[in-house]
Every structure is written in C-alpha cells, then in structure tokens.
Specification:
Peroxisomal Thiolase, Chain A, domain 1, binds coenzyme A, four-stranded mixed β-sheet, 2 domains
C-alpha cells in the first residue's frame, strides 16, 4: 500500500505585530483579560499588500524547498482557507500560477479552522489511491480582513498567517489515520453572516465580519475535543503514550488545555503557539508544526496528533509519524 509522509514544512507570518497593549488603545480591553481568558499575547496582521494568496505562496515555496522537491514534481495543490483572495478563481489556482506550475489539480477547501486538516485528509487519500505523488497542502488566512475591530468579543482573538506541508508518496507511513467531520446544526454560533449569495449590507460598504457566541462555541469546542480524543484513543488501542506531540488548532489556551487533559497528555507534549499567533484558523496547525520543528522540539520519527475544530461546526484529526 502507498502511504503519505510529510516531506517538507514551511510557514509565513506577516511582519506587523499587534500586541494586547496595542489593542488596549483601540478598544475597551486589557492585556490581562485577553491573556487570562485566551492565553493570547500578540498576533500578526497582514500588510495592505499581503493577501491569503501571497502568504500561502511564501509558505508553499518554503515547504517545497524544505522537501527538496522540484516544482514539476508537485501534482496536487490543496489550500484550506475561509478568506480567499477572490470569489474565483480559487486561491489555490492563484498560488499555482505564481509558483509556475501548470496542469495539476489546484483547489480550495473551505472548512473554516479545520481547513488545513480537511486538505490534509484529502491529499492523504489522493496519495494513498495513486492520484498524486507529491501534494502541497496549505492553510492560509487573512482573518484581519473579516474582523470587526469594534467588537472586543472577537477582535482580540484572531491573527493572520500561512503554513504548508509537502506530502509525498512513501512505502512507510507517514500518515497513520485521519478523521474529518461536520455538523451544520450550530451555524449561527460562529459565522460571517454576509456573503456573495446572501448579500452584503451596502450601508457597511460590503464589509463582512466574524460573529461569535463565544461562550457557546467554547463549550462546543471542548465537547468536540472529547469526541476527537475518544476516536484517537480507539485508533491507538488505548496507547496514548505513543503520541509524542499533540499539535492542536490554536484558538484558545484553555481549550487546548482541556483537549490535552481529555487525551491524557501532559502539557509538556503539547505544541502551543496561540500566545504568539492568536487564532489563525486554517493556518494554525502548519504554523505551529513549522515552529516546533524549527525549534528542534519535533523530530523525525516522532508520532504527532493534529486536531482541529472550527465553524460549521467542522472538526477532525490526523495521526502520523513525522
Ligand atoms: N476585553 C475585556 N472584556 C471582554 C472582552 C475583551 N476583549 N470580551 C468580552 N469581554 C467581557 C464581556 O463583555 C463580559 O462582560 P460582562 O460580564 O460585563 O457582560 C465578560 O467579559 C465575560 O464575557 P464572556 O463572553 O462570558 O467571556 P468568556 O469567559 O466566555 O471568554 C472568549 C470569551 C471569547 C475568550 C471565550 O468565550 C472563547 O474563547 N470562546 C471560544 C472562542 C474560539 O475559540 N472561537 C474559535 C473556535 S475555532
């Protein structure tokens, strides 16, 4: 059987950093409140000329270089994003053109904060079934463009950035299992109510903003991580100690701690970057992964667990040998 393994990783963060102290000057909030409730200290914000596509391009270039792959070997590009550059073409096609690749399938996956994991699951299945041999999976977001800077309940939570991996065909796993899920029941708890088909409020100049019932989302996120934990423990026949590193979606430190507890994993084996990056939605897992690999914490041969939860609700996990 053909397996998929991570051959390279890359990421990109905009230069501009917005700290909690900066936010104190923009709205009625405090560094102490944000850190206590979320663990976030700062976030990166895209410059005017930076887009989801431009950040995705940089992360993809770095991942391809890290994999030692040539561009003509890339035969699939999947990009998880909720903030595409244009209505169409897909941001994946925009990235493909700028990479200088022609012909291979390139498409976006929209699963909000689970977007990278959805793309990872898809690319893994493509490789397993012989549809691709080297796939670039990207998560990239410019959430600052859909942030309502007058709503302190959401504005303090999000950031921009991109991360990417190259998945390649291999005789050995690599990816051991993936699971993705959705339940549309809770649409209104976390959504952007405006859109192309529903329409925009022209009095707000076509703006679209994240709206969230924070408390209810928090409870659902914790309950969903319980399901993810059970699915994972089942996959491992109870051997949770086999996991060297848990790399969760980075939304809130308290959600990450609750998830680790449900899995029975100590925080020493959890990669947490929410303090530095805030919630970058589909970009958060590959961003955290890249940082932990560059810092030498995650090493080749380690067993990793990715897990995400996001609007939809969508959620999922992936277990792999790095
Ligand atoms: N600064 C200061 N005070 C704030 C604030 C801010 N940025 N945002 C909200 N508050 C206030 C509220 O107005 C409220 O005040 P009140 O009691 O006078 O009405 C109080 O803090 C408590 O608000 P609440 O919403 O109950 O806080 P919370 O403990 O639930 O924390 C979140 C709020 C958003 C941090 C938390 O609900 C959360 O993290 N939810 C999940 C978010 C998430 O991860 N979403 C993405 C999933 S992918």
């Amino acid at each position: 059987m053909t397996h998929a393994r991570i051959a390279g990783i890359g990421s990109y963060l905009p230069e501009k950093v917005l700290s909690n102290k900066d936010l104190e000057k923009m709205m009625d909030t405090s560094d102490e409140w944000i850190r206590e409730r979320t663990g976030i200290k700062r976030r990166h914000i895209a410059a005017d000329d930076e887009t989801t596509g431009s950040m995705a391009l940089e992360a993809a270039r770095r991942a391809i270089e890290d994999a030692g792959a040539s561009l003509d070997e890339i035969d699939l590009i999947v990009l998880g994003t909720a903030t595409p550059d244009k209505v169409f073409p897909s941001t994946a096609c925009i990235v493909q053109r700028q990479l200088g690749i022609k012909g291979c399938p390139a498409f976006d996956v929209h699963a909000a904060c689970s977007g990278f994991l959805y793309g990872f699951d898809l690319a893994n299945r493509y490789i397993q079934t012989g549809g691709a041999r080297k796939a670039v999976v990207i998560g990239s977001e410019t959430l600052s463009r859909i942030t309502n800077w007058e709503d302190r309940g959401t504005a303090v939570l999000f950031g921009d950035g991109a991360g990417a991996v190259v998945l390649e065909a291999s005789d050995e796993p690599g990816v051991m299992s993936t699971h993705i899920h959705a339940d549309g029941e809770y649409e209104e708890l976390l959504h952007v109510r405006q859109g192309v088909s529903i329409g925009y409020d022209i009095t707000r100049k076509g703006e679209a903003f994240i709206e969230m019932q924070g408390n209810a989302v928090f409870r659902r996120a914790v309950a969903t991580f319980d399901k993810i934990a059970r699915e994972t423990i089942e996959d491992l026949d109870g051997h949770i100690d086999d996991i060297d590193w848990f790399v969760p979606h980075q939304a809130n430190m308290r959600i990450i701690q609750a998830a680790a507890k449900k899995l029975g994993l100590p925080m020493e084996r959890v990669i947490a970057t929410v303090d530095e990056h805030a919630n970058t939605s589909g970009a958060s897992i590959p961003l955290a992964l890249d940082l932990a690999v560059k810092e030498g914490r995650i090493k080749r041969g380690d067993t990793l667990l990715f897990a995400a939860f996001g609007a939809g609700f969508t959620w999922g996990s992936a277990m792999l040998k790095y």
